[in-house]
Amino acid sequence: MRFTIAIDGPAAAGKGTISKAVAWHFGFAHLDTGLLYRAVGAKVLAGAGPVAAARGLTSEDINGDLRSPDVADAASRVAVIPEVRAALVDFQRDFANRDGGAVLDGRDIGTVICPDADVKLYVTASAKVRAERRFLELEAKGTDLTRAEVLSDVVARDKRDAERDEAPMRAAGDAVTLDTSGMSIGDAVAAAINHVKLARHVG
User: pLDDT band at residue 202, thresholds of 50, 70 and 90?
Assistant: First the structure.
């Protein structure tokens, strides 16, 4: 049985947490595609060329700590390179087509990677809410950044992701938008699971 769920949205909107919960609920495999770009970004920070890093990426490269602000920024920068994106497309599509169901989250899953996905969600929230979430996350890790700096980073990354020429971040025309600005994570997960249940029933 193949069933693909595409979940897109900007940073810190909650799509990663929602995707993991949805995958667990239905027993599907999950892929955080942002980790692929973070892994490439980490290799670039270590001195590799971005295209070579993407073409030589292995599953081992996705392990480890890829959540630092520097890696996140590098990931956003390499993601605008067409050759990098092309090198990672097959990896993502193969994962999406596996038997047993798959949930992929990222920024262009429903628009580019899996345009025929059975379910498409676009998870978003206001920049201010997302910046606060990211600030608290970084603060807990001891990162020395101010709220203003984190908000500036979030806004800059949104702009870069939305305005890139190759696969810009946007909601697919047939995606259901889930704004988590005023939602608890439990409510957001429940809403996503309910939508998938309805889609599977109809299908």
Answer: low
